[in-house]
DNA sequence: GTGGTCTAGACCACC
DNA sequence: GTGGTCTAGACCACT
């Protein structure tokens, strides 16, 4: 379900957070659906529950999930995702794209990639 | 020359690395040109030379600069920049863009941003 | 009657408690009037009766309602509301206001807000 | 320096966070000044460093402090405090004030309190 | 020496 | 059973 890479310099909770975000984006987990419990996911990834907890907390701050104490953690609606997160992504998009252009990547190459992603989403 | 932001959560050496990369990308430092010496830059930013050293090492690993022992550090040719770095950037581009699309950003918005960046580069 | 927000981090029983307090404050439930029975409210909100029970207990501790065994729960007179609750609110008022002032909010802004609330109450 | 109350239902890290915020607001810690190290404060309050860490993290999210890894945690400028925090406070102000008014507290009483706080700040 | 992350294990509040 | 908090103790990255 989620791939952890212990050689990666990114902390584990960030890898979990990003992996879950990916699952939410891919539609593998739909809005309103329950995410695995902290303990369940921890044992399935054989890491400590506290680490999962941090990942869930981070996703909640971004607006991707909400939690009901005593009930569980659930996928939120798209519209609930933070404006902050959106802005963060735009900044990152600009930085990445401008370096790619600088390194000689033709803008058309990037544009085509975007169009492909869009198509895939509409499948 | 380089703006350090101590409130930024990124470590100083990453800020220096990114700042220098920016200078290289903007054309402020041209291929073949000598970068300031480790000590000079350290004292001008009033930080530890070791921190500058780490930044230079990172840029060398990316292929943005090369070092001639006893001579100094110099800006490399574009074509020398690592394929790894290019790959890394493409992956990041895809991840960022797909999340933006997922969050409802129209592909056209991103494409327009790309076109604007390209124009700016050709000024 | 009461809006539950499952994305709110507050526990359900606090949301019920605050919602009822709001109804009492707005005059929707007048002193002496009977509140809905625990079971009725529970089924109307489709939550567990225990949760409603906790909310009613909390309001009784604050002095906002009183319970007659076998009869039901009733809205109390204003004068019966706990001094403790009043004290608690004053402390919170001071803390909140002083931080707002510290952050540069002009006292006049806060005073105007107070005057507007007062007017609304007298409608 | 900071008073912990183990009977309080608020978690310890929130009490630490609020206590520190108070110290920042009172001018006991000035912008740019270094806060005690995580370990130092932990041992002085005889609680776990992780708990202090959470408090510092929360204050950083609010914009009250910034941290330099390897250096320490420092008090930020007022202007860096989050808009979110400001809005949160306004909501709390309105809720508290309206309940106080409902309970019969004259608006003039609250206004006078505000004026006194303002005077104290200008000493 | 500083903050950041992680584990193991525990207890609590909520539903 | 679920998430939230806390402790004790450890290791790592950064300066």
Topology (elements, then pairings):
4 copies of one chain form a homotetramer.
Chain A lengths: L11 H14 L12 H8 L3 H14 L2 E4 L3 E4 L7 H20 L4 H15 L2
Antiparallel strand pairs in A: 1-2
Helix pairs in contact in A: 1-3, 2-3
Chain A binds a DNA duplex (15 and 15 nucleotides) through helix 3.
Q: Brief description of this entry?
A:
The structure is a homotetramer of 123-residue chains. Chain A is mostly helical.
Task: Write up what this structure looks like.
- Chain A has 123 residues and is mainly α.
- The first copy, chain A, folds into two domains: 12-80, Orthogonal Bundle (Arc Repressor Mutant, subunit A); 83-121.
- Chain A is 58% helix and 7% strand.
- Chain A contains five helices and two strands.
- Chain A has helices spanning 12-25, 38-45, 49-62, 83-102, 107-121, and strands spanning 65-68, 72-75.
- Chain A has a two-stranded antiparallel sheet with strand order 1-2.
- In chain A, a hairpin with a 3-residue loop joins strand 1 (65-68) and strand 2 (72-75).
- In chain A, helix 2 crosses helix 3.
With strands numbered from the N-terminus, the spatial order across the biggest sheet of chain A is: 1-2
Please give the alpha-carbon distance between the first and last residues of chain A. Answer: 22 Å
The CATH superfamily label of the largest domain in chain A reads Winged helix-like DNA-binding domain superfamily/Winged helix DNA-binding domain
Radius of gyration computed on alpha carbons of chain A:
17 Å
Would you report the number of β strands of chain A? 2
Assess the beta-strand content of chain A as a share of residues: 5-15%
- Fraction of residues in helix of chain A: 55-70%
Label the overall shape of chain A: globular
CATH topology tier name of the largest domain in chain A? Arc Repressor Mutant, subunit A
How can the largest sheet of chain A be summarized?
A: 2 strands, antiparallel
Model regions low in confidence, pLDDT < 50 over at least 5 residues of chain A: none
Q: How many helical stretches of chain A?
A: 5
Count of discrete structural domains of chain A? 2
